[in-house]
UniProtKB/TrEMBL annotation, chains A, B:
Any one Gene Ontology molecular-function term assigned to this protein's record: transcription cis-regulatory region binding
Record organism: Streptomyces diastatochromogenes
SUPFAM superfamilies in UniProt: lambda repressor-like DNA-binding domains, Periplasmic binding protein-like I
The protein, known as: LacI family transcriptional regulator
One Pfam family here: Peripla_BP_3
DNA sequence: TTGTAGGCGTTATCAC
DNA sequence: GTGATAACGCCTACAA
């Protein structure tokens, strides 16, 4: 017991005793057993983070920020890669409920509104993303519609009149593509520009490769266009590459704007205009919400929806 | 006890009993307590991964591959971000020894040869990186010298005669920059080309920003050059941007090659020639070595040094 | 100020 | 085939 008191810096230990304990610990190369401490305390000091893959630029950026934010609360982060698959996202929830983690930050990509029921758990969970609003847990999201409208408006202000949208498949109104599509439409309507369905370009996956192909095809034999709003910077990087392949000059003939402000976007040629959703703020809020839940037992009475701020970062790809 | 037998699929449980247990579990919403299981078993099923930051392209790629490889062994991965700082790398070692992790994969960036002593631990550790060779633990490394030589040779074969090296500070012969510098020199010597110290360009940090500045300065008023070997793709991305700022055409006037083959490099304009060090193989080996150590107690008798393979990926930036 | 008792939830062992 | 017992290492509560 005295050893425990020394380890945990409890007062009421005589300096001489403390010294003897420390010496013995050093001599025996003693290490506290974290598993035993966890069992006794009922907490592990670790939170789970479930994201599609840490190597994807946006999720990597977010994971880094979340690990840093968690560290400020004295928490470690264990990462599950879900591959954006619904079943893996549900599995992460299950692990968290097994008290492997004190709480879980879950990026819902594969799960959809129909899975809201799975979130009815007596365990701290914060949802990150667009797929689930109004669920039984706290939620941190991007200002998708407003930011997408701002990005589109920026293209209009720079003189674009036939603006394409490069997005994923528009399925159920609650994914990244659909929400940003809504913002794109809003901006066009507000400016009195027609919405040409031929300029809404869906790619099967939000990858550079798919985006590059689509951009090449559009430039080769698609309808005329003078601007592209890409739903992510990854898509925009692919688009820039595809347009270059087709001999289209950016921003001379076509202006391009992305979304996410990943580190690389400032160094592309041309550098990429984009939306900065303040990843650090989102990470900080997500961890703060989770920590608050970890304080009390049981299901929360009120859920918080935190929508981040954003700013436009104007670079060469929408220059004059 | 019978519950435990059911949960762990032990034989010798009568089907009817198993059924009753399963029903009770469902009724009570029973969850195994992983902390208690860890205490009892003396293992946590989690390994630690200490890297500078998951958001850096190379470490993100590696982390993703490691998480996937660990998953194949039924292990979770908890990530510590060290910021490349020696003290944080040592702290990760300490956590692992506290039995928080069953083992640790440690990317040594801040630690150096002088810290070999810290690795003398009775706990599974695999070192990843260049800083520590011949230590008391297993080690997975890139084929730095050979691959750097191959990259430089490629520039020579493409007609370059004044090849710059864009690297970090060359301090102690056992970091990424120094090892790749050695390969660069080897290739120049083998080709009978002079080694011009003015063409060895150190930047204070291996970032896009620092590289872009250095490339601009070189193009503006440095010595003449017709090729650049960049020690990482990140540095190469910065260099491409800096050269573009200075109005230098790539590959027309100057050819550029990087190292790492990060996802983005294929989509840059111009696309980036680079060295692919087979991240998946490195990750797979690192986890396999760690798992092997986790089998036995105590310090290993023999240490394994695994040096990955590599291949050149030729793209536009070194095209004719 | 120090030390004793007990229990966190699980599972290896062994008796029934 | 089932279950009682004990122990993994720690820390809260309380006694000395």
């Amino acid at each position: 017991m005295t050893v425990s008191n020394v380890i945990n810096d409890h007062p009421h230990v005589r300096p001489a005793t403390r010294q003897r304990v420390l010496e013995a610990m050093a001599r025996l190369d003693y290490r506290v057993n974290v598993a035993a401490r966890n069992l006794r305390k009922g907490r592990t000091g670790t939170i789970g983070l479930a994201v599609p893959e840490v190597n994807r630029p946006y999720y990597g950026r977010l994971a880094a920020a979340l690990i840093t934010a968690a560290d400020r609360h004295g928490l470690r982060v264990s990462i599950e890669q879900t591959g954006a698959r619904r079943e893996n996202e549900l599995a992460a929830l299950s692990l968290s409920r097994n008290r492997l983690y004190d709480g879980l930050i879950l990026a819902t990509v594969g799960m959809g509104p129909a899975d809201v029921g799975s979130l009815e758990v007596d365990h701290p969970v914060v949802i990150l993303g667009e797929r689930i609003f109004g669920g039984p847990v706290d939620h941190v999201a991007m200002p998708n519609v407003a930011a997408a409208a701002a990005a589109t408006r920026h293209l209009i202000e720079r003189g674009c009149r036939r603006i394409a949208l490069l997005c994923g498949e528009l399925r159920d109104e609650v994914d990244v593509s659909s929400l940003r599509h809504a913002g794109y439409r809003q901006a066009l309507e507000a400016a009195g520009l027609p919405l040409d369905p031929e300029l809404v370009l869906s790619v099967p996956s939000l990858t550079m490769d798919a985006a590059a192909r689509r951009a090449r095809a559009l430039a080769a034999d698609g309808p005329a266009f003078d601007g592209v709003f890409c739903v992510t910077d990854t898509v925009a990087m692919g688009a820039l590459r595809g347009l270059a392949d087709a001999g289209v000059r950016v921003p001379g003939q076509v202006k391009v704007i992305g979304f996410d402000n990943v580190d690389e976007s400032a160094f592309l040629v041309p550098s990429l205009s984009t939306v900065d959703p303040d990843h650090d703020l989102m990470a900080e809020r997500a961890v703060a919400l989770l920590v608050a839940r970890m304080g009390h037992e049981g299901r929360p009475a009120h859920q918080e929806e935190f929508v981040s701020t954003f700013s436009l970062v104007i670079r060469e790809s929408t220059g004059r």
